[in-house]
Design brief:
Radius of gyration: 22 Å
Largest sheet: 7 strands, mixed
Mean pLDDT: 91
Strand content: 15-25%
Shape: globular
Strand order of the largest sheet: 2-1-3-4-5-7-6
Order of helices and strands: EHEHHEHEHEEEEHEHEHEEHEEEHHHH
Length: 372
């Protein structure tokens, strides 16, 4: 049996059951499950630096190189066949030293480096973001010396001088329950689940909701926000300014049955509406996969990578900063109501997810390279 390591840098403890509710954690654990169930004995190694001050971490970017190697110094790399790395942010001296040390001991160790979002430079804003981006740009040009492949959700054949493996973002559909709704509703509930940042673009949705209610509409539409993040306070302030408290609910972070309860009230789910703000024109975000696994139609701006042109369960809005046209969403919902019963709709969407974005399918190109 081949042996490998899955390296990631997440600021939480995977032993904490609450962590498993986050999208990234669920994805990492699902990838690990697929590797292990396909005959690849893979151990997770997470670099969690929440107990280290930002200043100390900043210094380590430039002046140290053994931070990462220390954690796995007891591992005999000569017996490791592969290493799968989820992108470390930023690429720094410590990461390059770790990869170089592994290759020095075992030149045949295959290293695959996953970049979840590419290009990603626009994600780094502000003073801290500028420092992280400067560091990343300084060191990432050396990755080609140690990495065999970069796994990407983009269509690039090469990134940073490294050949790519093209994959799509996947989830473990078996771990996600279907919504329990049996019929359509007169009023519509939208759900938005995220670690809210500016590029999620839900300010556009709130602007659209405000315009909708200024006209005293007959049809009511409600929004459930689930999660937290840097943009959450902006959304709260907008809802307060527009006096939309009756129609918008902020639930905070939810997991398990509590999360499912909110999903069960939803008629549609909303993907990111601000991908253009970070230069993304083709979306592979995890939330679209979870929404489909739940059996929900979606609203999105950027084209979703796994959807064909004849996929009827998505409504695309303009990929810009304009307010979302709520009337167009209502018309889309009416079209779905006339098309088929709600339970058939839920089943069809779920079946599409199982056949196109389940982790056992999306990880196949990775498995092929590891067994090559």
């Amino acid at each position: 049996m081949k042996r490998g390591l899955y390296l990631c840098k997440q600021n939480y403890n995977f032993d904490d059951i609450n962590v498993h509710a986050t999208g990234i954690a669920k994805k990492i654990l699902s990838q690990l499950k697929v590797l292990n169930t396909n005959g690849l004995d893979t151990k997770l190694v997470n670099y969690n630096f929440t107990d280290v001050s930002y200043f100390r971490r900043l210094l380590s970017f430039f002046f140290t190189k053994r931070v990462y190697i220390k954690k796995i110094s007891n591992i005999d790399f000569s017996g490791i066949n592969f290493i799968y790395v989820r992108r470390f942010s930023p690429t720094d001296r410590n990461l390059l030293y770790l990869l170089a040390a592994i290759k020095k001991v075992n030149q045949n160790c295959r290293i695959i480096y996953e970049i979840p979002t590419y290009p990603y430079d626009e994600e780094h804003t502000g003073i801290k973001g500028s420092i992280v981006l400067f560091t990343d740009r300084l060191f990432r040009k050396c990755l080609y010396k140690y990495i065999n492949y970069i796994a990407t959700y983009s269509h690039h054949d090469e990134i940073f001088g490294v050949p790519t493996i093209k994959i799509v973002n996947g989830i473990d559909c078996s771990a996600i329950p279907l919504v329990t709704a049996k019929a359509y509703h007169d009023d519509i509930h939208l759900i938005c689940v995220a670690q809210f940042s500016s590029w999620h673009g839900y300010d556009r949705l709130i602007d659209g909701l405000y315009a909708h209610y200024k006209n005293n509409p007959e049809k009511k539409i409600f929004i459930d926000f689930v999660g937290d993040g840097d943009a959450l306070q902006q959304y709260r302030d907008m809802v307060s300014t527009y006096k939309l408290e009756r129609y918008v609910i902020f639930h905070g972070i939810l997991a398990g049955d509590d999360l499912s309860a909110v999903f069960n009230q939803a008629d549609m789910a909303v993907c990111s509406l601000g991908c253009h703000r970070k230069g993304i024109i083709l979306s592979s975000e995890l939330k679209s996969r979870e929404y489909m696994a739940r059996g929900l139609p979606m609203v999105a701006s950027a084209k979703i990578d796994i959807l064909t042109n004849d996929y009827v369960y998505v409504h695309y809005v303009p990929d810009d900063d304009s307010p979302i046209d709520i009337e167009a969403i209502l018309s889309f919902y009416d079209m779905l109501k006339w098309r088929e019963p709600r339970q058939k709709q839920i089943y069809n969407i779920r079946a599409f997810a199982e056949n196109n974005c389940d982790m056992h399918i999306t990880m196949r190109p990775i498995l092929d390279k590891l067994y090559d």
